Every structure is written in C-alpha cells, then in structure tokens.
Please model this.
Amino acid sequence: MEELRQKWNTRYRALAGQSVEPCQVLASHTGLLPQTGTALDLACGRGGNAMLLAQQGLSTSAWDISGVAINELQKRAQTAGLSIDCCISDVSAKPPAPALFDVIVVSYFLDRGLLNNLEHALRPGGLLYYQTFIGEQRDGRGPKNPEFRLKYNELLNHFSGLKLVYYDESGQNIDGECLYIGQKP
Model:
C-alpha cells in the first residue's frame, strides 16, 4: 500500500497548481442531485467532484490514498468556503459502510472488488455516478493495464440491481470512456 500511496503522491505533486474539474458525467447531470443529503467522492484525487458536490449543498466526504491530493483539496475547499470531510484512506481496504450515502461519485478509478460495496453504500434512492476508461487504450490516455479498464457493458451488467438513469460508452462524449449513472431502488 505504501508504494501505491507514494506513486499517487508523486503524480499529484506534479499536478499542483493546475485547474481541477469535475468529471463529465457529474458536471453534465447535476440536475439529478438531491437538494440535501450526503455525498462521497471516492478515490477523489484532487477533488473536482467533491468541490462540485459541496457547492450543490451536499454534505460531502472525499477519500483518497494520497495525502498530497487530500491536503490540496482541503486548502481549496477552505479557500472556497466549502466544508468537505477529507480523509486519507485506502478505499479498497476500507470501503464505505452500507446505506451511508445519497450520492457516490467515482471517476478514473476501478477496483472490481469494491463494486458491490458501492451499491450497498447507497441509501434507497441514492445515485451512483461512475466515469472511467473502457476497452483498449487509445491515444495514450488512461491505464495500459486492462485490469484497470472496464469491459464493454461491464457496469450495466454489474449494477443490474440499480435503476439505469444514464449510460454512454459509445465514445462520442469522450473517446474510450464509460459514463454511468444508476439509482438504488
């Protein structure tokens, strides 16, 4: 775990000072968000999703293995006057508890062993926003290792217990990515 933490700390140090944006599937579908409730930006990185969730009035948590990313997010949230519960956490080793969140956002992170936990961590009516790489690597974007890339229809198949709200893996929005929103009944 320490090697992985150092890898991401190094990557996020190199990005310091660059702008941070929320993922497309969240930014394009903020109208679906509840007016109140709890939200989690899981494996949040520099926290673009967490910032947007907090701006929308949700009680927001942001978890990531990188202390560098979490510290940067805390500073940006404080500067923006936003309250975000930032936590350095190995989300694969310590997944979210059941029925804890109204919204969970995952972008550019894939741990198949965690997928069941995500569905269980949603409260009834809760939304899961998921965006990550799919298929084979194109144009050098995303992970080379296929273990960290979704197979086609994988999220549809895995989250069949959720009501499908939005799905796009056509590559027309973003080349080589899957965009998914599901709602817990």
